[in-house]
Amino acid sequence: MTSTGMASIGHESDEDQVDESEPVVCEDLNAEGSDVKPKLDFATVPGYNNVRLDQSLLPPPPTDYIPPKDQKQPDFMSAPVISEDTARQALLEHVAQQCCWGKGAAEKMTIKELQSSTSYHYILETYTEERSTKWDFDPFHGQPVDGPQNGPAPGPWDIAATFREVFKNETQHHEVPHTAYVKDCHKCSAKGHVRCGRCHGRGRVKCGSCRGTGRKRVYRKGKHEVKRCFSCSGRGKKRCTRCGGDGRVTCPVCKGHCRLRWFIRLIIKWVNNIGEHIVEKTDLPDELISQAAGSLGFQDTQPRVMPIARFPQAEINEASHRLLNGHQFPQRRIHMQRHVIRMVPVTQCFCEHKGKTLSYFVYGLESKVYSPEYPDQCCWGCTIL
Hints:
The strands form four sheets. Strands 1, 2, 3, 4, 11, 12, 13, 14 and 15 form a nine-stranded antiparallel beta sheet that branches. A two-stranded antiparallel ribbon has the order 5-10. Strands 6-9 form a two-stranded antiparallel ribbon. The chain has helices at 84-96, 104-108, 286-291, 314-326, and strands at residues 56-57, 110-139, 170-175, 181-184, 193-195, 204-206, 215-220, 223-228, 237-239, 248-250, 259-279, 295-302, 333-353, 356-363, 368-370. It is mainly beta. It contains four helices and 15 strands. 10% of the residues lie in helices and 33% in strands. The two termini are 69 Å apart.
């Protein structure tokens, strides 16, 4: 083999042959599949002394928020109550949507009592911004290099950036100005190519059809015969399709340009942190309340909201204080907070059918139904396996 890693034409031992079906496994640091880490001798950038290849969080500068003295909470609203006709019609529509449920029970059962209540869904949203930095690179092909010669790099929280919509998760990537410089590629040592990881630089691989023997045993006309392998023409080896027989491939890091442009990347994440609490006194599962439509009993949006203190349900007041205390983010900047109380109507319908008592729930403004006790859950003609 030549010093450049080209495949030689002469005889190779069986140990040098590589099965073309084998995965790429490289021990050579200059090979295609090897994991070469650059040396951490990056340029020193004032204000970014601790930046490494992995992301590092940068806490925002401290800010003192003073809530306005006249900040008030809106008035609370109430949830609607449904009638017996609405309760029965909701059950009939629910039955019609279920496979194999019969509607006879829904039509004939006697509704004895309706117990209406209101479930409360408290939601707190805190919209935060998080900034982190890391060294990154791209192949250098002559593009402009904004380095320290253009001035000092701005601080990570001095770089202007804004989100598109409040309370929506978003991530942005920015190059920190005046931090770029050019360096030889650490992967290929500025050669532009690396040893092929499939053939290990040999240019040929073991034929997968004959397993490198050059011959195959075939069954023909009632007997076994040994024939020359058609795939490799009896050579036992084939040209590596990864490198085309050259033994080298373009460096996957610098893309053949030999040099890299290093710079500090700023990663900005706007995250909507959500906390919620449900107050539901019946046997209706809480997750159904969170998925149902409700009336807006309360909403307040401020840079910092005040905990709810005078809502008729003491559990909501306690949840508001607790969740707000938990929404402290020392590593992030808080932009906005919003909390709402959704009021979901719930009606438990107590019924009698064929001498048996049962109940079902009608909940939400869209009159959804939860009826695990419904008697006709399998109509005639169905077979339960």
